């Protein structure tokens, strides 16, 4: 069989709702094709009503507005390439184990999104004094068994983040309409925050003068540092600096001689400054070479390191640094819901 016809597949974690992991170790493109973009859902896919589609903005505004797809296409647009990472990415690696979808390294993907800056839309509605948060509600809904109630998926942003120049309401994914499973027709895209903030199937925006207390804001997507206490809890927001070893994969057997170790790195503050490799469990580190995507400040960085592999068993560690001084720690910040894992990544390799 020709190599061109050998393709990877998503890894299934659950089907109801559908949660599928990207084959991240086999993707070498800057833009993740839709068939390989990871899928994260809390509920069943929503039924999309026939066109025309529209988005409403109401609440603490001068004039509630209804925005159609045609309106969006006639407003100033912005195109941004960035990774979306599930806050639970790498959850399977926490020790002690935590409950939830047992994501490994494939709950992160990258695409080029085109849309209208959210602040352009909010200016149309006119924010009134006292506006504190913007609440975004998708079309997907279902029952939360822990609360015995039905909820739409909804999240909020501080008004400052909502007004950020690169927070957009997207209508295109990699140059085409957003795929149904990834939020068609409108999806909020929030750079540098974990993907729970980038609400899919966006239908309503509410401007409020207080803190939003929906369950996906105050119950889920919260760091709880202690197993049996809510002490010191804090919200999940900015992506932690992180990296992945794409090749060679963990527990691989490879040949002696020159081998290329490669992967990707990304962050939520600043940009990636440095990626380092260790072969002695972190005693010493060697710099990898980096490749940035030109003019894309949020895009992940590709890294590689040429290694003269010698026979035996080896453990490869990788860690990334960002320009704000953050570096991947040797041990993750344990929290009982398993968010934000970003400890140094490793691959155990046997060379024959």
Automatic annotation (TrEMBL):
InterPro entries: Ig_E-set, MoCF_OxRdtse_dimer, Mopterin_OxRdtase_euk, OxRdtase_Mopterin-bd_dom, OxRdtase_Mopterin-bd_sf. Pfam families: Mo-co_dimer (PF03404), Oxidored_molyb (PF00174). Keywords: Metal-binding, Molybdenum, Oxidoreductase. Residues 42-214 form the Oxidoreductase molybdopterin-binding domain. One of its GO terms (biological process) is sulfur compound metabolic process. The keyword Oxidoreductase applies. Gene3D superfamilies: 2.60.40.650, Oxidoreductase, molybdopterin-binding domain. Residues 236-351 form the Moybdenum cofactor oxidoreductase dimerisation domain. Its cofactor is Mo-molybdopterin. One of its GO terms (molecular function) is molybdenum ion binding. This is Molybdenum-dependent oxidoreductase-like protein. It comes from Cytobacillus oceanisediminis. The lineage of its organism: Bacteria, Bacillati, Bacillota, Bacilli, Bacillales.
């Amino acid at each position: 069989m020709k190599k061109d016809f050998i393709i990877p597949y998503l890894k299934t974690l659950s089907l109801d709702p559908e949660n599928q992991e990207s084959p991240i170790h086999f993707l070498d493109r800057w833009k993740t094709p839709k068939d390989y973009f990871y899928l994260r859902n809390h509920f069943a896919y929503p039924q999309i009503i026939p066109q025309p589609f529209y988005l409403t903005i109401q609440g603490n505004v001068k004039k509630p507005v209804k925005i159609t797809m045609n309106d969006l296409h006639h407003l100033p647009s912005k195109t941004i390439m960035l990774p979306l990472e599930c806050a639970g990415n790498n959850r399977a690696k926490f020790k002690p184990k935590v409950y939830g979808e047992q994501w490994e390294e494939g709950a992160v993907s990258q695409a080029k999104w085109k849309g209208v800056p959210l602040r352009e839309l909010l200016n149309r509605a006119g924010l009134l004094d006292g506006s504190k948060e913007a609440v975004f509600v998708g079309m997907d809904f279902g029952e939360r068994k822990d609360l015995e109630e039905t909820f739409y998926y909804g999240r909020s942003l501080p008004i400052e983040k909502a007004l950020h120049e690169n927070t957009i309401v997207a209508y295109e994914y990699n140059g085409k309409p957003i795929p149904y499973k990834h939020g068609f027709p409108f999806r909020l895209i929030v750079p540098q925050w974990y993907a729970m903030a980038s609400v899919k199937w966006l239908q309503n925006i509410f401007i409020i003068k207080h803190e939003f207390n929906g369950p996906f804001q105050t119950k889920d997507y919260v760091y709880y540092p202690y197993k049996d206490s809510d002490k010191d809890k804090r919200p999940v927001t900015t992506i932690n600096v992180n990296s992945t070893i794409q090749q060679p994969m963990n527990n691989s057997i490879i040949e002696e001689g020159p081998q290329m170790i490669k992967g990707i790195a990304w962050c939520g503050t600043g940009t990636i400054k440095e990626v380092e490799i260790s072969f002695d469990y972190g005693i010493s580190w060697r710099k990898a070479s980096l490749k940035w995507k030109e003019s894309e400040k949020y895009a992940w960085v590709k890294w590689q390191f040429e290694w003269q592999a010698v026979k035996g068993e080896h453990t490869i560690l990788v860690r990334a640094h960002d320009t704000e001084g953050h570096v991947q720690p040797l041990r993750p910040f344990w929290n009982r819901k398993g968010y934000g894992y970003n400890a140094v990544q490793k691959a155990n390799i046997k060379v024959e």
